[in-house]
Amino acid sequence: MDRAGERLPGKLVAVEGLDGSGKSTQVYLLFRWLQSRGCRVFFTEWNSSLLVREATRKGKRRQLLTPTTFSLIHATDFADRYERQILPLLRAGYIVLCDRYMFTSFARDAVRGCDPAWLRRMYGFARVPDITFFFRLPLEVALGRILEGRPKLKYFEAGMDLGLSPDITESFRLFQGRVLDQYLGMAEEFGFTVLDATRPVHSQQQVVRQIVNQKLDLATFHKRFVQ
Questions:
Q1: Is 227 a member of any domain?
Q2: Listing from the earlier edge strand, what are the strands of the sheet with 11-17?
Q3: Chain segment 4-20, per-residue pLDDT in tens
Q4: pLDDT above 90 covers what percent of the chain?
Q5: Is residue 165 a part of any domain in this protein?
Q6: Count of structural domains within the chain
Q7: Rounded to whole angstroms, how far apart are CA atoms 141 and 13?
Q8: In-domain check, residue 89
Q9: Is the pLDDT of residue 60 over 80?
Q10: Which of 208, 211, 212 is nearest to 39 (CA)?
Q11: How far is 188 from 130, CA to CA, in rounded Å?
């Protein structure tokens, strides 16, 4: 049942974690696995709405976004995808996989100074996922993975807009450390399933599949199943 009281036949699965945690890889592998089993499944990712993508891109490039504006833009993106994609597909009996959910805003925007209670009210329309996987990773490992994949850190992922440190690497450690604290504080509040993101990709995926198989009746999501 969603937060508005509507009973929905679909199921919602979200993944969360620090940048570099490998969550996107895990949710993609889960998506392909569910597809291979013939399940009705849909995938959506954070900050991907066509409605606000250009505004977000320009705001980031010109570094014009205040913490509140940043938060409102992401909330608009989320609300658009929720109303156009997530909710209709849950009503249609799909498993909906989300690469980041409202918890990303709760963590990042709170670190940027937004009131946690205000953030929760702003996303009050959204259903709490049936499963939320949180991929926990030490900061140094996350930093190493990101730098391995590209030459430098991005301005906002390192929290440079907060003035924590003039050194972008140190700013990343400080900002992501605070984000991690926010996530860990939410783990019990929202019932996160916390996984060790330092384990091999295959081992993590096996655990993810086992949990999904245990908590969701996958047979009811098979494309040939008639409810």
A1: no
A2: 41-45, 95-99, 11-17, 131-136, 193-196
A3: 567 899 999 999 999 89
A4: 69
A5: yes
A6: 1
A7: 25
A8: yes
A9: no
A10: 212
A11: 14
